[in-house]
Give the backbone structure.
Amino acid sequence: MAARESAGVLLHRGVGAGREVLLAHMGGPFWARKDAGAWTIPKGEPEPGESLLDCARREFTEELGLPVPDGELRPLGSVRQSGGKVVTAWALAADLDVTAVVPGTFELEWPPRSGRRQSFPEVDRAEWFGLAEAATRVVAGQRGLLDRLAGLDGADPS
């Protein structure tokens, strides 16, 4: 069985020790009371026949409710998360007003086995973090993307 794939955009602003990245806190009941390891880059799974880059752009817009800012998307490659999902990401130097985020939603049977379907936000908030702080918040399998971002121009990830 092929590994599940996801693609996303890692927005960043500033340089060197002042660099910050945009992370989104995963929405829904499973993540509501979690913080460390509950943040992610805006990402999602490709539709059949969709390129990973097109998927990354679409998912950014779906998850945050805002278009991908203009700028050069620089490939960061792929990482494998603990559950086996392969995440491919692109870095984009741009700013974004997190107060303007209007997340998309998904449906889930909740509580489990209740027969009731509820709607939850894909992400419940987005915030800017310095690289060291981001490394403590992001899903462990995505930390390598932060390291690669730091390496694009020699920025120190810590």
Summary: The chain has a mean pLDDT of 90. The radius of gyration is 15 Å.
